[in-house]
Amino acid sequence: xxxxxxxxxxxxxxxxxxxxxxxxxGVDDLRLVVELAHGRATVGEEHAEIAELLRTAxxxxxxxxxxx
Amino acid sequence: xxxxESLARAEAAVSGRAQRLTTVRHTHLxxxxxxxxxxxxxxxxxxxxxxxxxxxxxxxxxxxxPQPRDPGLRMEFLAGLAREVLPWLDGHCxxxxxxxxxxxxxxxxxxxEAPQLVVPNTAAVQALRLLxxxxxxxxxxxxYPVDVRVPLLGRWLTxxxxxxxxxxxxxxxxxxxxxxxxxxxxxxxxxxxxxxALLGWIDxxxxxxxxxxxALAEERDPPAGPSTDPDWDNRVLAxxxxxxxAGERGAADAIAEAVRxxxxxxxxxxxxxxxxxxxxxxxxxVAARWEADKDSFTGYAVQTASGGPPQPRRDGAVAAAxxxxxxxxxxxxxxxxxxxxxxxxxxxxxxxxxxxAGRVVEVLADRRVGAGxxxxxxxxxxxxxxxxxxxxxxxxxxxxxxxxQPARVVEVGSGRVVVExxxxxxxxxxxxxxxxxxxxERICYTALADPYCxxxxxxxxxxxPWTHGGPPREWxxxxxxxx
Lengths: 68, 483
Fold this sequence. Notes:
The structure holds 2 protein chains of 2 kinds. Chain A has 4 helices and no strands. Chain A is mainly alpha-helical. The longest helix of chain A has 17 residues. Chain A starts with a helix and ends with a helix. At the A-B interface, helix 2, helix 3 and helix 4 of A face helix 1 and helix 12 of B.
């Protein structure tokens, strides 16, 4: 059974809904998602593509929001 | 949801603070919207319990049904709502403005203002749709006569609920939908439907994170309607209604006070949401979409005044197909306009390879193609970009900052895209001064455009094919039983 409090406490992607889980291509830890986007973490080859996409997405957000 | 939005949600969850999804507001906000916060009886379809309504944050008016299961009291309540809403709508029909003639049409008049109604969440939009459906076929005469204003209110509520489905329309707005379009929170989209929790993430009180403020709002505040808190239903409302049914003195006033206490929180939240949204600058196409709202309002007001029938319970086959066609075209147009107005929305298309942005590194200003008299000026612009571009050669492009200068892809190389300008540079042998992008300038190109798409051709309703049920029956007013 899905427990919202447990998912939040564990920083799991499913606390944000099923579509978010799909977008992150199997990376379930939100902290790791953010670290990958900022280029501060590395993952194995199975997640290399999503890591690249996250870095690009982060670059675009920073560019559009003026470096925030 | 897209990857950019999902990443913003992850950032919000980790940082404890909502993240921006847009750089501008994509919805028109009028100076004095009408705010309406409904509360519906649990377990009953279209049984209103109360409504707070008004245009002044400090002076809401309360309408209450002391026994929502009584159809007579429900209709009295709806007549009271009609006394609030219909004069407000009429107030928008006092002043006209001229719309200049288009390419084919003549100059015409329309109302200079359109009404804007703001409710707390999308469930409230659905509640208004239900109320519209429950009232627009009622009649002032017959076995169960209602106030003459009630069916008219039903038509207008139905009209507004239909406008809420229209991409880019700002006539009936759900505060949660507006806010969650501009900010990503660290909770799911379903949880964003709680206005208190959503505002907690976006604008938490000093000393609290967004997550803490949202949790506090969920625990402390009553829901912003239209559903009630089941605990409140059992503990407060049920005994009060039982007292009213038993004829206790002061029971109606006690119910009104209890309903007011439930609605006041939601009322304040809606005004807080409006104030937050006002702080954002409006996108460039927002005004044009509001013009379309004024056209729509004028059309429906004229149709109603001239005795047109109410909206059908179900669209006929032709009307349904035409409506779907219109919604699809308007959605595509709205998506393109949002992207052209907002670099953060455009970033979605850049991520998908359907747009690119970068720095102009070379401009071949006097390039001409063709021979003899058909020789034309076609400058080339080379853009250095970090974006992964998936646009094939020959794709038509537009730059958001240069809408009158169409272009097309000539070559896509590693980190460089060469673009040919096919217009907007003047008709002479050399480009008009200032018409070309300059080396060093930042520029964005996209295959998205905001073109006018003509509606598809559909048969007349009288010619509806038998495969689709044949021509629908003409509407005729009929006496109806109470639901």
